[in-house]
Design goal:
By secondary structure, the chain is an all-beta fold. It has strands at 2-8, 14-20, 24-26, 35-37, 43-51, 66-72, 74-79, 84-88, 92-95, 103-107, 113-120. It has a 6-stranded mixed β-sheet with strand order 2-1-9-6-11-5, with no helix packed on it. A hairpin with a 4-residue loop joins strand 7 (74-79) and strand 8 (84-88). The chain is globular, with a radius of gyration of 16 Å.
Length: 121
């Protein structure tokens, strides 16, 4: 599995990167076959966000380092370097551009979008 990462470099420009998740077989339930788990990321809080169809923002930095998980709808996020990526239901974006020029976002779907925001430590 892979997720996208959005980060700011030393000059304040934001960029995308891709991160591969490594899984390890784990005995999760004694009466069942092992399942695969990734390493845990410490988190401090979880919130859900609903944005209406057509919602859009100008360039902004993230208020905190967060995992952004799209539960419904579709988003387009544009890094300050100009690269745009789309995130549909089930997509995950690690948002780390808490300084610099930031990114812009908009809901591309014809319906509202709901996302889970997991703030990381």
């Amino acid at each position: 599995m892979r997720y996208a990462r959005l980060f700011a470099d030393d000059t304040g420009e934001s960029h995308f990167d891709d991160v591969e998740i490594e899984f390890t077989a784990t005995d999760y339930v004694q009466s069942a076959a092992p399942v695969d788990f990734s390493a845990a990321l410490p988190a401090s809080q979880v919130a859900f966000m609903r944005a209406p169809a057509g919602w859009a923002s100008e360039l902004h930095v993230s208020s905190a380092r967060s995992m952004f998980v799209v539960l419904s709808g579709e988003w387009e996020v544009t890094a300050s370097d100009g690269e745009s990526r789309r995130f549909r239901m089930g997509s995950t974006l690690l948002v780390e551009d808490t300084s610099g020029r930031g990114h812009s976002s908009r809901v591309m779907s014809d319906t509202d979008s709901i996302a889970a925001m997991v703030e990381l430590d």
